[in-house]
Amino acid sequence: MSRFLAGPFAPVDEEVTAFDLPVTGRVPGELAGRYLRIGPNALGVEDPAAHHWMSGPGMVHGVRIRDGRAEWYRNRWVRSEQVRGLLGEPSGGAACEIGIDFACNTHVIGHGGRTLALMEDWACPQELTAELDTVGPYALGGVRPGFTMGAHTKLDPLTGELHGLAYLSGRRTARHLVVDGAGRLVHEAEIPLDGNPMMHDFALTERWVVVYDSPVVFSPEAMSTGARTPYTRDPRRPSRVGVLPRAGGGVRWFEAPDAFVSHTLNAYDDGERVVLELVTLPADFDIAAMRMSRYGTLDRWTVDLSAGTVCEQRLDDRPQEFPRIADTVVSRPHRYGYTAATAAMYQAYVPAGDGPLPDEAFVNALIKHDTVRGTSEVHTFERDAAAGEAVFVPAAGGRAEDDGYVMGYVHDPRRGAADLVILAAQDFTAEPIARIHLPRRVPLGLHGSWLPDR
Ligand SMILES: [Fe+2]
């Protein structure tokens, strides 16, 4: 059986609704909104041995918080027509006019009052209700084939514009898209590509859009290997970054370190340099086998636009993923970043992961990075906890960049269920302010958001 159907990754098999969740500690009264996180949750697996983690339909896990209470927990599969069929439900009726009808499993965001599940490539964004039921396909930027926005969008905190990168397997172009708060397309730019690289994330600064041309490529032949993913590693393909003006214009390519960029922490302009802080995987990342020689590290790549070079600096060589910053500093200089270190992730991906971890003390932890001072604080959870991505939520009226909360799902091995853990970002290693006890396990998932009430 695939390792992604077992242990912390094992899917859950039913949808649950629970009200008035028990809490250890105190839920800050100023928090009003929903914390949502999505991930693949397999359904109707035909061949458990060959199951690929990323191929599972998305399931959203959400907690609603208001007036110091955790009002509800819900988990819901995103409904594609296939998911509806597997669940024995009638057709949803609405056809996806811009891409493929797949139950998006990678990110869930709020934009313009809507809750949207996202995935890259041709997957059509899907709108969810406030209570996580699927409304149907939603075409950010209008109904035009291929305008799928990708999995990782960037919301400019000053303009309120949402930037996305649409890349489409089988097409030798990507597209930078910008939509306003009402979901209207306000800018688009074509990015010619040499081949069909996987472009999971990108970066945004005040002046530039930065895209990653990776050694992982779309390959229909890969599907025939039983890998169940259309992407495969091309060891001959060099790693590049492309820089194009936000307002439009041609892309300029730079030779990049030999690595696969999995996620951007943030990016910003520094005169004629573009600073990218990101999590990279080694160039031998084999997405079909879901194996690599080491796990993700936190790095800084500095693109010198005058010299035409990219300099690499390792900020933290401990295995970690899921970098997040305060949404208020996206595309501008930042100081703090937050990542997750998860033993189960490391053990699932790295061949030697069945053996001792690189640092036994550094597992199942959330990390707060001070990228200006070059220091970090580690909030360690118990053995067999599984800390996933954590998001930063600003305190009401907070002025400092880290004045707020860090929240995410962490497995509690004593209960066999997940907690939504809320840390004080400025007292990061202290006991959590609150542990909201969910009634069940939440499988290790991908990305999510805090969606405040408006
Ligand atoms: Fe991602």
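^ fe (ii) ion complex. The mean pLDDT is 93. The longest strand covers residues 259-270.
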